[in-house]
């Protein structure tokens, strides 16, 4: 009877240790994935700020759309009734 209890207890300890190792491995993978996602997020924020930079927007407007800043004499102020 004692032999059965010892074997069962040893098996439970071995299984518990196996689960601990598997869960720890999964935790490490998730932490690595989290770090990779954080790095990608920072890169995307930098890219967004680059795309939204005022000088870049003005350059694209001039080169691609043929827009230009109008002279002060060409401006008209309209008053609403």
Give a brief outline of the structure.
It is built from 2 helices and no strands.
Textual characterization of the structure:
This protein is mostly helical and 81 residues long. Helices cover 74% and strands 0% of the residues. The protein starts with a helix and ends in an 18-residue tail after the last helix.
Number of strands: 0
Mean pLDDT: 92
Estimate the strand proportion. Answer: under 5%
Shape: rod-shaped
Cα separation of the termini: 101 Å
Q: Pick out the low-confidence regions.
A: none
Task: Tell me the layout of helices and strands.
Elements: H1 2-51, H2 54-63
Could you list some keywords that capture this structure?
81 residues; mainly alpha; 2 helices; rod-shaped
